[in-house]
């Protein structure tokens, strides 16, 4: 971002300097040519007096000495022509001075011809008519080599280019420092947001220099962070209180269930054992949910046999949903071991099964399968319910999201979201898709090596 802002600040400066530099270069070249022209015009005006005397006395020698001395001292060729255009005296002229000479013999002073490029100027020709009263006697013509003029223009342009380069270098530094100053608060906000996203709710942005508008953004961000931290602290306090309040009755319930199991008749012992197992699993789920609410879902390092865990949960669901056909899972040909917490796997599977049972028509089968593929253990649960629109699949794991056609079904919209978050610490994921022939297929994908699918 700083680079883009630097370019945005730098490019207008470059364009402005180029425009001003070209205008100055043109002005400088024209001024130097004008100066030389005025000097030569003054010299020609001086020579006109001697040329007039020479033409009136019909003696070329009167002006020849001045013309030769002028050429010797200044290196400028000068000549006098009479009214007919014939060379009268001087160092001689060539065809380059013909146009100016004809203009002077017509009674007009030669005009200044300006050129922007120094190499387009070879010679500077000045022609001044010579009058005696109202009679045109001839003209004085000077021809100057423009090599020195071009050299002076190039020297001036070189100094101009060096100055422009220096200013451009300074402009880069100024643009970079300006961009750094402007974006300083933005970078601070970005770093603070990253820290907050990683769980550091105490991250704040120190007051720093920068535009007043961005300093206000920093202040608002700090105020927002204070409010978020207060709300999270309240949530954590609520979770701790809820844990304490739920733990006591749950422990009492488990004690009574244990006593019930010990005193149950043989015919009822299987159902009592089932109730005790569910109560213990409820305690484990409570621990997992409390950790999840505290953003501390557990990461495990041991492997579990996924097929055995899923078969146990399927049997429990068959007892809970008597009469509901639940197919599978088939015995695995190869060990389906994955790195995942047993409680997390059971809770995620139960959330998926609960979703399938809720939305499947009565009597419609629910199909469960477990298989391994390319280092991943996959548990698939397919129902034959109405499914969801394809564009809604990506939102089903969002908290509190419920489809528009689910208004008549009880639930909070948290099950699939919690399942997805319970699987994440060990690289697992919940993938939802539409099954062929209708219904929804939920796949729990678990890494076999703990690195994630």
Automatic annotation (TrEMBL):
Protein species of origin: Georgenia deserti
A Pfam family assignment: HATPase_c
Keyword line: Kinase, Membrane, Phosphoprotein, Transferase, Transmembrane, Transmembrane helix, Two-component regulatory system
Entry's transmembrane regions: 154-175
SUPFAM superfamilies noted in UniProt: ATPase domain of HSP90 chaperone/DNA topoisomerase II/histidine kinase, HAMP domain-like, Homodimeric domain of signal transducing histidine kinase
Gene Ontology terms, MF aspect: kinase activity
Catalytic activity: ATP + protein L-histidine = ADP + protein N-phospho-L-histidine
Protein name listed in UniProt: histidine kinase
Localization of this protein: Cell membrane
Domain HAMP: 180-233
Enzyme Commission number(s): 2.7.13.3
Histidine kinase domain ranges (all copies): 241-450
Enzyme class: transferase
Source species taxonomy: Bacteria, Bacillati, Actinomycetota, Actinomycetes, Micrococcales
């Amino acid at each position: 971002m700083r680079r883009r802002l630097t370019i945005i600040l730098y490019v207008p400066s470059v364009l402005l300097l180029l425009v001003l530099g070209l205008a100055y270069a043109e002005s400088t070249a024209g001024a130097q040519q004008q100066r030389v022209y005025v000097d030569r015009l003054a010299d020609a005006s001086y020579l006109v007096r001697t040329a007039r005397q020479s033409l009136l006395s019909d003696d070329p020698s009167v002006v020849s000495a001045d013309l030769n001395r002028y050429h010797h001292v200044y290196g400028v060729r000068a000549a006098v022509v009479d009214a007919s255009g014939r060379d009268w005296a001087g160092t001689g002229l060539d065809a380059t001075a013909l146009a100016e000479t004809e203009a002077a013999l017509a009674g007009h002073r030669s005009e200044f011809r300006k050129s922007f490029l120094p190499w387009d100027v070879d010679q500077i020709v000045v022609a001044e008519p010579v009058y005696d009263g109202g009679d045109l006697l001839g003209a004085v013509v000077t021809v100057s080599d423009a090599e020195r003029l071009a050299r002076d223009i190039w020297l001036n342009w070189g100094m101009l280019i060096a100055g422009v380069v220096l200013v451009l270098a300074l402009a880069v530094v100024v643009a970079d420092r300006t961009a750094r100053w402007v974006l300083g608060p933005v970078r601070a906000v970005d770093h603070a947001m990253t820290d907050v996203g990683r769980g550091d709710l105490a991250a704040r942005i120190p007051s720093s220099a920068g535009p007043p508008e961005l300093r206000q953004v920093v202040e608002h961000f700090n105020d927002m962070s204070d409010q978020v931290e207060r709300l999270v602290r309240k949530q954590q306090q609520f979770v701790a209180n809820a844990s304490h309040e739920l733990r006591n009755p749950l422990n009492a319930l488990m004690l009574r269930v244990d006593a019930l199991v010990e005193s149950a008749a043989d015919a009822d012992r299987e159902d009592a054992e089932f109730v005790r197992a569910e109560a213990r699993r409820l305690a484990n789920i409570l621990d997992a949910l409390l950790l999840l609410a505290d953003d501390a879902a557990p990461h495990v390092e041991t492997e579990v046999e996924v097929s055995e865990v899923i078969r146990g949960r399927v049997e429990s669901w068959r007892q809970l949903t008597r009469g509901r056909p639940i197919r599978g899972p088939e015995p695995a040909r190869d060990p389906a071991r994955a790195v995942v917490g047993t409680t997390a796997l059971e809770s995620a599977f139960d959330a998926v099964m609960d979703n399938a049972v809720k939305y499947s028509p009565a009597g419609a089968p629910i199909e469960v399968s477990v298989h391994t593929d390319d280092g991943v253990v996959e548990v698939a649960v397919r129902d034959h319910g109405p499914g969801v629109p394809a564009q809604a699949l990506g939102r089903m794991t969002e908290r509190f999201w419920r489809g528009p056609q689910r208004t008549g079904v009880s639930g909070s919209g948290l099950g699939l979201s919690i399942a997805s978050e319970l699987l994440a610490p060990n690289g697992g994921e919940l993938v939802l898709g539409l099954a062929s022939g209708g219904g929804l297929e939920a796949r729990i994908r678990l890494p076999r090596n703990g690195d994630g699918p």
